[in-house]
Amino acid sequence: MIRHALIFWITVTLAIFGFVIGVLTQPFFTLSKLILPLVLLAIIYYAYKRMGPGKYARSSSGSKVKVKPSQKTMSKVAGIRKTQATPGKRKSYPFQVIEGSKGKNDDQVPKYH
């Protein structure tokens, strides 16, 4: 993490140093190279503020409309809740463990798994 931060700050320092040297040696050429990225950044910022990420997600009144579930839906939900087992009870599975005919030998059991 520290290594990545060090690389980042060295890169930022060199970029600033290169920009300052460029402005001091060829001011018009360096500033003309900045015009296009600044214009694009301004357009993106304007579009973001104008359209916004949640602009169309909100309703026109400003508050969300709550839909009341129907009586049929509520009866289904109540039926599902009643049929669910309580957490204290153990589920019964249709599987059964069948003991093998070879028998168990403690000598063949590996010491380390």
From TrEMBL:
From start to end residue, where is composition biased (Basic and acidic residues)? 101-113
- Write out the ranges of the annotated region (Disordered): 54-113
Membrane-spanning ranges: 7-25, 31-48
Q: Which UniProt keywords apply?
A: Membrane, Transmembrane, Transmembrane helix
Where is composition skewed (Low complexity) in this entry? 59-72
UniProt-recorded name of the protein: DUF2207 domain-containing protein
Q: Which organism is it from?
A: Paenibacillus etheri
